[in-house]
Amino acid sequence: MSKWRRRGVQAFIVLLIFGNVRSIFFGGDDWPFSSYSMFSAPETPQPVQALRVVGVRADGTETPLWGGCSMPHGSYRLRYALERAYGLPDGPNRLRSLFRACLSSKQIPFQSIRLYRFYWKLTPALAHDRNPSEKELLLEVKSS
Amino acid sequence: MIQRWNHFWFQPAPPSDLAICRIVFFSFLFLRSLSKDGTYWSYVDPLFWHPVGLFQRFHLAPLHGDIAFYLETVWKLSLLTSAAGLLTRPSTWFACGLGTYFLGIEQNFGSMQHSTALVALLLCVFAVSRCGDALSLDGLFNPKSVLERDSEYHWPLKLGRTLLAFVYFGAAVSKLRYSGLDWALSSQLSILLQQNYALFGENSLAVWLSQHDIQCRTLATWTLATELFFPLALFIPRAQLPLLGSMVAIHVGIDYLMGISFRVFLLSYVFWIVPDVRQRLAALRAQRPPQIENLGSCISPRAKTPVPKRENATKV
What we know:
The structure holds two protein chains of two kinds. Chain A is 36% helix and 21% strand. Chain A contains three helices and four strands, in the order H-E-E-H-H-E-E. Chain A has helices at 3-27, 75-87, 91-104; strands spanning 48-56, 62-64, 112-120, 134-142. A four-stranded antiparallel beta sheet of chain A has the order 2-1-3-4. The N and C termini of chain A lie far apart (70 Å). In chain A, 31% of the residues are buried. Chain B has helices at residues 2-9, 15-34, 53-57, 65-84, 88-104, 114-128, 137-141, 155-178, 182-185, 188-200, 205-210, 213-229, 232-235, 237-258, 270-287, 301-304. The longest helix of chain B is centred in the middle third of the chain and has 24 residues, at 155-178.
């Protein structure tokens, strides 16, 4: 390995180490560097809550949507993305427009799309019944 | 200090270890990429766009769907040619540049997936390294380019290992920073298991386990301790097997109980496994008794025949 090549490699190693150390000890998440803080925040046994998008069929049955309709896909990702989008000043209106466009494009076989906030009580009974203990309808868009 | 630094990163090593790592890493990533659609994110509404890290720093935005499709095809091809060692240098650079986009783009919609961050960094390591010298099509066409034993083939392995150690150590530091020792000694894991089951419902065993406080605290303490002490595996060879084994068990547990897959993450384990297996095999070969030629001799041939020298293995 030549002298200059070694210096270049050393600079590269130092850069990656510095990026990691900075993120872990000072910076938080700076993709692709990260503090890897998954599940590290203290949790309290409060009812857990999450926003959920469901499609409603003609017979009234509700089907959860985990993607599609120009939304991010994946249960984890969608949960946080919806929370953030709904919290924006014009978030609810923009979500309404999004669902309206989705229904009118006939991408999905639903009569309407609803956005709920689900609440679950953390009890041993959860193992047998995963239905939310409470749900709050935040918005609904019906196909015209 | 400088000597120690150089000794840690720049020991001579055979080119085959890094080459095997390259083949395994890029082959797996290529197969994984076949089931992924990087163009999906081009059609997600800008309402959900929340740039992070590199994307925020360099004002990167989702590509147009058609462009994303062509570039994703180039990326997948570059993964394949990197695995085969064909035009390795440009291939690994393309794999790194485009991979950073396609692995990173989804992180800007909602939540960040930590496992792909490590893969992106490892792509950079391969791009800078001389991973295509051995066991490659390039090596076949130009065999003179392969060096016998050189530090060129050692530092990428060490850096891959160090980056993985940072991940686990960072996770431990975050737990201690935000929750302190309570993360392990309180009912934190029990609550996490219940919350996760309520939200995503992967496995009802998680709820059963969450009712057993001592078991939860033991598992949490084990996880925190393994993560915190994982960097020791970089310096103490004897600590490697227990720490790596322990981490794999933790990953399997998280995958089974919480449905959070770290399979792509386990790719980085090649940097630990390949050199270790090669060294063990070399050690076994060195210990094997040589073939007995003089059957008439009453003296043990083992005593007469010089024991072959153990390969100048790199201690890691």
